[in-house]
Amino acid sequence: MTLSMLRSVVRRTSTSGASRLTRRQFSSEAAPERKVAILGAAGGIGQPLSLLMKLNPLVSTLSLYDIAGTPGVAADVSHINTRSQVAGFAGEDQLGQALEGSDVVIIPAGVPRKPGMTRDDLFNINAGIVKSLCTAIAKYCPNALVNMISNPVNSTVPIAAEVFKKAGTYDEKRLFGVTTLDVVRAKTFYAGKAKVNVSDVIVPVVGGHAGITILPLLSQATPKANLSDEEIVALTKRTQDGGTEVVEAKAGKGSATLSMAYAGAIFADACLKGLNGVPDVVECSFVQSNVTELPFFASKVRLGKNGVEEVLGLGPLSDYEKKGLEALLPELKSSIEKGIKFANSN
Ligand SMILES: NC(=O)C1=CN([C@@H]2O[C@H](COP(=O)(O)OP(=O)(O)OC[C@H]3O[C@@H](n4cnc5c(N)ncnc54)[C@H](O)[C@@H]3O)[C@@H](O)[C@H]2O)C=CC1
Ligand SMILES: O=C([O-])CC(=O)C(=O)O
């Protein structure tokens, strides 16, 4: 979902003739019924993400699940006069109902970082949360596209894959680590340095979603700009440290929530468009991959009616990016292996 689309939804629904206009628009578009479930919907990301998904006209049912607090979030969001019907579910005994029939499941459930922590420091708590949620997904909506936000993404995606394999439901086309926030940041920071219009900027970000595993391919950024080597290094580091920048600014009150909700809404919208048969929907995501020797890797992915339609290659890299790629592989490998080991030993 682009910002202009968001604005136009808000515009359409903010006048007195709103509901009439909204109804007419949706009935003429005949968008298929799509259920989206958000697990962790009462949290810092979950709440604004619920709002943004409520604004998305491709959603017909919005299912908001958390261990507590979701009835309130659902009641609040449900009053917004857009297409989707909203329901809130709280506690494990309602998880099946929350998931049943879902086309897309977005998972921002789990603890966020505090200053001084790495994403890997979240593993001990979040690995178990992700494992139990994915066990339920395998049971109640095995065909859903899963958008994994919970950190450490480099490990939680492999955990999800193992859980689905054990359940006999694994389809590599349907599992995505959400790395869209890295792309959002790279676009913003690049536009600022290159002095180009941010809405025109395209920057692929590959690798994983932690520190040096985040590799923005600034040599492929458009519109082209004549940036110095020092500027490229600084932009790369700022993108890699974007999450930490927010964690430190929030000083103990969590990590990125609002920009993550925006990024999560963009990625979920791309998944829905792909499911609906919109051609040429391409986003970066951490998926099962043959792009490197690692089993999972983030790169550009073409989305289609079954999820991943094609994992795109890296394209030409600068020498600096080649070195970055080489440097990130060992860390990414060990995070992936840690996730696989956890899923198979617990
Ligand atoms: N992929 C990415 O780019 C990003 C990922 N994150 C990650 O997203 C996660 C969530 O962050 P915040 O929303 O800020 O945290 P938060 O603490 O504000 O919210 C997390 C929510 O998850 C819920 N939760 C915990 N266990 C659950 C379970 N078993 N089932 C359902 N819900 C459960 C909590 O009740 C809470 O409402 C963190 O792991 C964070 O590191 C954050 C920013 C960016
Ligand atoms: O940095 C964190 O802990 C949250 C995150 O993944 C991000 O903001 O990119």
Automatic annotation (TrEMBL):
NAD(+) binds at residues 40-46, 66, 126, 149-151, 260. One of its GO terms (biological process) is tricarboxylic acid cycle. It is an enzyme of class 1 (oxidoreductase). It catalyses: (S)-malate + NAD(+) = oxaloacetate + NADH + H(+). PROSITE patterns: MDH. It is found in: Mitochondrion matrix. Residues 35-177 form the Lactate/malate dehydrogenase N-terminal domain. Signal peptide: none annotated. Substrate binds at residues 113, 119, 151, 185. Its EC number is 1.1.1.37. Residues 179-342 form the Lactate/malate dehydrogenase C-terminal domain. Homodimer. This is Malate dehydrogenase. It comes from Nicotiana tabacum. The gene is LOC107791114.
